[in-house]
Amino acid sequence: MQDDSAVTPTSTSGLGSRALRFAVLILVARLVSRLLALVAVVAIGNALGDTRFGQMQTAVTYTALVGAITDIGFTALYVREGARDQKSLTRYFNNVASVKLFLIAVSLPMLAGCLWFSGIESLLLPSFALLVLSGYSLLLRSTLYALQRLNFEIAEIVPETAVVLILALVGAHIHAGPGYFLWAYVASAGFATLYFITVLLARGILAPRWQLEPALFAVWIRAGIPLAITYVLTTVYFKLDVPILQHFRSYAEVGWYTFAYRPFEALLFIPATLRTVVFPVLSIYYRNAPNRVLASAEKLFKILAIMGWPITVGLFLLAQQFSDLLNLFPQSAAALRILALAIVFMFVDNTFAAVLNAIDRQKLFAYVALSGLVINLSLNIVLIPRFGYIGASWATVATEIGLVITGWLALRSVLGSVRVLALCWRPLIAGAVMGGFVALANPHGRLALLLVTGLAAVIYAAMLLVLRTADAEERLILRRALRPRG
After folding, report:
1. Strand, coil or helix: what is 156?
2. How far is Cα 111 from Cα 66, in angstroms, rounded to an integer?
């Protein structure tokens, strides 16, 4: 992400350093948030036990799947088009918010059918409330990303998670059931929705009203169908393992797998945050400075690899220790170790999603997402009946590797090659040195684990500096992003 000095809303000047500044601040806030969320999940899992936790996670999974199907790509399109034409942002928001009411009506019978099929229809009401509020809070939140006014987003992240944590601890104390904990997530989504509505109205950013323009939707549906397909396919392949596992195995095994998956999934806030921040920047670059797109894509790939690789190495080597630290189910450690191998691939494949959608190649990325669905579905159908949750874990790893390969090939066909080896050999060496230290230390006990983890991070960072991983332009962007404003 290249950089200049002056800043205007939709110009390309200063976008690189501004995006990096916001990314750093949001990552810090989300790190605190995810730690709180992890404490909440551990409290919920231990309060419910493996079977009831598996039921709750199945309801959450179906809620996410139905929400993806009924979004039809409009939220992603809203961010892209809103970033490019900020004067029309209120118009775009009102149209998308209005059409969501029709989509909500469609989602209710779909969600009811899924939960009835799984025998957990009693969880329909909180699941539907979660679907509605999470959908609208995401749309409202996306407004700030389109405008790159993320200071309001940063202020909201931790309090939203604190709502879940407080209610989770109360629920664990009173021995509540799955429905109560789903309502805790509903309360968190409701808090976020109310916060963003208040901010956007108080700042005069939006003037919400009922608005449906057939002419606009005729254009957006054509552009949005590939995005919708991509969003659905991505969500389906990401969540498909849980319904298949639930069909072939017990809810207890679903609980083992999803409990291991939650720490793994919690780490994905890092690439998700970077992709969300960079996506509107890439969209503006493509419109106003297309020569910068490939270089920016390489920088995004590089930073995601730098961040994902040490997590893969450390979590793979210390999966049992982290499982004990987090008080996961005993059976969850094996799945966590396997899932660790997928982390670096899941980080870097966000590059292709961000870039292809930003340069109006959403149809091409839909094919990339389809390949992920095919790989994941095929492997889960083959592996889960025989190997259960361990098979589901290996299917996740193979799917992420496949997505990186197909995403790289797709981007090369329309923009150019991301130079993977040139970008990643230094981080790979740094991670290997760090891994050697971790393997030799082999810590046992919580204090030793935390100490070794901290030292490993220092060693990795030192190796990146020794190997001069950041080039001159990246160092300049970093200095500009971190210098005091004003």
Report:
1. helix
2. 6
Q: Residue type for 218, please?
A: A
Measure Cα distances from 479 to 251, 273, 337, 467, 482 in Å: 50, 21, 37, 19, 5
Q: What is the DSSP code string of 311-370?
A: HHHHHHHTHHHHHHHTT--TTHHHHHHHHHTTHHHHHHHHHHHHHHHHTT-HHHHHHHHH
**Residues 402-441, buried b or exposed e (16+ Cβ, 10 A)?**
bbbebbbebbeeebeebeeeebbebbeebbebbbeebeeb
- pTM recorded for the entire structure: 0.69
Contact by Cβ (8 Å): 47, 39: no
DSSP assignment of 45-94: HHHHHHHHHHHHHHHHHHHHHHHHHHHTTHHHHHHHHHHH-GGGHHHHHH
The per-residue pLDDT for range 83-127, each reduced to its tens digit, is: 778 888 888 888 888 888 888 888 899 999 999 988 899 999 999
Q: Which amino acid, 119?
A: G
What is d(CA 466, CA 433) in angstroms, rounded to the nearest whole number?
A: 12
The amino acid at residue 193 is T
- What are the pLDDT digits (tens) for 328-356? 888 889 999 999 999 999 999 989 988 88
Q: CB-based burial of residue 460 (10 Å sphere; 0-12 exposed, 13-18 middle, 19+ buried)?
A: buried
Neighbours of 126 (CB within 10 A): 22
* Look-up of token digits 């350093």: 17
CA distance 3 to 470: 15
Cα 62 to Cα 109, 127, 257, 407, distances in angstroms? 12, 9, 16, 27
Cα gap 265→348, rounded to integer Å:
15
For residue 38 the two structure tokens come to 């992890």
Distance CA 333, CA 318 (A): 10
Region for 388 from its dihedrals, namely left if φ exceeds 0, alpha if ψ lies in -120 to 50, beta otherwise: left
Nearest residue to 269 (alpha-carbon basis) of 372, 343, 353, 355: 343
Distance CA 183, CA 273 (A): 25
Is the CB of residue 2 less than 8 Å from the CB of residue 16? yes
The per-residue pLDDT for range 7-60, each reduced to its tens digit, is 344 445 455 556 666 667 777 887 888 888 888 988 998 899 988 988 998 899
Give the C-alpha separation, 385 to 211, whole Å.
49
What's the CA gap between 133 and 396, in Å, rounded?
29
